[in-house]
Design brief:
By secondary structure, the protein is α/β, with parallel strands linked by helices. It has 19 helices and 19 strands. The strands form 4 sheets. The protein has an 8-stranded mixed beta barrel, surrounded by 4 helices. A 5-stranded mixed sheet has the order 4-5-3-8-9, with helices on both faces. The chain has a two-stranded antiparallel ribbon with strand order 1-2. α5 packs antiparallel against α6 and α10 packs parallel to α12. It binds ligand C2E and magnesium ion (2 copies).
Amino acid sequence: MTEYLVFDEENNIHGIEGIVRNITEHSVTKKRISSMLYSDTLTGISNRLHLETLMEKLIVDNYKKNNTFSMLFLDLDHFKHINDTLGHDVGDILLQEVAENISNSIRQEDIFARIGGDEFVIIFKDMKEEQLVMTVEKLMKVIHNLRTINEYKLRVTASIGIVMYPQDGKSTVDLMKSADIAMYESKKRGRNTYTFFQNKHSDSLQNELQMMQDMSLSVDNNEFELHYQPKVLVKGNQVIAAEALVRWEHPTLGHISPKEFIPLAENTGLILKLGRWVVKEVCKFISSFNVLSNNQKMNISINISIRQFQQENLYEVLKENIAKYGIDGSQISLEITESIMMENFDEMVEKLNKIKTLGVYISLDDFGTGYSTLSYLSKLSIDELKIDKAFVDEIPINGDSTIVLDTIIAMGKTLNMSVVAEGVEHEYQRQYLEDKGCDIYQGYLFSKPLMEDAYVDAYVVD
Ligand code: C2E
Ligand code: MG
Ligand code: MG
């Protein structure tokens, strides 16, 4: 039986041809039906069906009258992380509060809907761009409000994509697609920001799609390469280890940075194949370096991304390659980020401890940019803390102190970890690190990442 939705002036459902008779027999009011069909049960605002219905109607109306409207697509940042670590009940209350705060900050006539887990859409009719920007900035502030939920003090941010009808899409589907692309652009730009859709965003998405398709073949065709960046003692500049960093020379797009393709590889799952390739290549390199250097036993670190850590049996992959290439587990370090540990903490600790039985070292990369708390850190058997470049950049040239960096160095030492500073580019930064007792550094000041041959030429001591 075909069913049609029929609407009245307030966009309430008026009836469903075909089943409406049956419903009336059960004396359920039309209003109740419309609210059941159209509202999001968690927040009470419109749901996706309602939004799409209202958009269709707007498009038909505006098409007739030649008016425009703008649409915001909001996605909360790191919401999954909050859900996973603090529980779904906290996540649910957070969504309700965010929805309520947004509702209170927009006009009665604006359309507001929740269309997925942490995704919201707002439609503004007849709003000039200047006012739109002011409204978006106000919304970002409201979303960032400090909230206390079940005794947790929480702040969230959102990534926002903005589209205009009709230039960014003439149909509901096209508008949603453009809004999604613009929102994704905000995520790429570091989150907590808004982006107006531009055609070039979909061009860059096209490029990304091409990259994703090519990546698998590129691993087989050896288009990836590893470069090695020395880790150096802050006192005396002696090279004590190195980090393997992957490079991709794409046949038509040229050099692509890992910052671009690693997140894509994570999304497509290709990171597993690429990651296994990196482990194999590093073990092979360590083995040949051992021979060339008369068993100097250099330690090489491998970056491990979140999906790899969660889904791959890293223990098996490492064990197999360590045996195959006849090297010591202690010649490998794994660089993981804080976000890896925060998802399913107990399960991650178990995985980490199993990997450590191979003798492999664990290093916490980009430290200071995530959410680690002291209590979490002390429960992990981490050997090394890598301080993110952002903190090194804050070292003042005049020798004044920078409290955050000093605190991280002191904390790492208290927890018995070796402390590595990343991205050191200037001698005054190195000097500062020496004064504060930081052990190791990496950075262009000493050396950029080098191709395998160049690394061997430079650091094999005859
Ligand atoms: P990361 O692990 O934090 O690596 C440090 C990045 O900083 C590298 O960028 C390195 O080339 C760069 N760098 C080092 N010293 C300096 C400096 O003095 N100044 C500046 N401006 N930059 C410096 P790269 O090679 O582009 O890698 C970016 C990120 O991509 C890495 O950050 C890592 O998270 C990821 N990555 C690289 N290789 C792999 C890999 O094999 N597997 C995975 N999963 N991720 C990788
Ligand atoms: Mg790293
Ligand atoms: Mg890093």
